[in-house]
Amino acid sequence: MAKKSKKKQQQQPGGTPATVALTAAGVPFTVRSYDHDPSHPSYGEEAAEAMGVPPDRVFKTLVADVDGALTVAVVPVAGQLDLKALAAAVGGKRAVMADPALAERTTGYVRGGISPLGQRKRLPTVLDESAALHDTICVSAGRRGLEVELSPDDLTALTSATLAPIGRA
Predict the structure, then answer these.
(1) Closest CA to 94 of 76, 71, 114, 78
(2) Is 86 exposed, middle or buried (0-12, 13-18, 19+ CB in 10 A)?
(3) Which residue range or ranges hold the YbaK/aminoacyl-tRNA synthetase-associated domain (predicted)?
(4) Which of 43, 77, 133, 150 has the highest count of CB atoms within 10 angstroms of its CB?
(5) Which structural domains are found in the chain, ordered by start?
(6) Dihedrals phi, psi of 154, to nearest 5 degrees
(7) Which residues fall within 8 angstroms of residue 30, CB to CB, at 6 or more apart?
(8) For 1-145, where are the E strands, in sequence order?
(9) Per residue in 42-79, pLDDT tens?
(10) Which of 92, 102, 167, 86 is nearest to 132 (CA)?
């Protein structure tokens, strides 16, 4: 049996810890890939443009330090993360962006490809409440040039996320 599972994971297109977690949970999702351009100034905006998806439906995954604890923030690529709102959403006082190397080590993903799903260490997660306005949203599938489209309800359930107004235009 173990060999069969392993083989199934290897055959899965774009098999990353994120897509493996989605498959294991039985959650419906669509993998969307595009050719990543390393010279593009914004990973998230590049993803929206390349996939032809409105930027308010493509969400970026950011890692912040809230009072000494790493916390994941998932916000639309069309806007920015409001650090004060993130801190308030998790009952903290102060938030700053996490050191990129620490974020990569902790999540197991590279910057520009950090997914809120299938992280090496499960971190508290806050999803911007605007996600609830859409039937589906896109988030990183765990590598640059690879996204997953899924319902915000499924993302919230799988990450135990809090919905809060943490994004700003």
Answers:
(1) 71
(2) buried
(3) 45-156
(4) 77
(5) 28-168 (3.90.960.10)
(6) -65, -40
(7) 136, 148, 149, 150
(8) 30-33, 59-66, 69-76, 80-81, 95-97, 125-128, 137-143
(9) 888 888 888 999 999 999 999 999 999 999 999 999 99
(10) 167
Contacts 24+ apart (CB under 8 A), 87-95: 88/164, 89/126, 89/162, 89/164, 89/166, 90/66, 90/124, 90/126, 90/162, 92/66, 92/67, 93/67, 94/66, 94/67, 95/64, 95/65, 95/66, 95/67, 95/71
Condensed to tens digits (0 to 9), the pLDDT of residues 107-166 reads 999 998 999 999 999 999 999 999 999 999 999 999 989 999 999 999 999 999 999 999
Distance from the first to the final alpha carbon of the chain: 49
Give, in order, the Cα–Cα distances in Å from 119 to each of 46, 98, 163, 165: 23, 16, 19, 23
- Which element (helix H / strand E) includes 85? helix 83-89
Q: Looking at this protein, which amino acid is placed at residue 122?
A: R
What is the C-alpha separation between 36 and 57, in angstroms, rounded?
19
Max Cα separation, the chain?
49
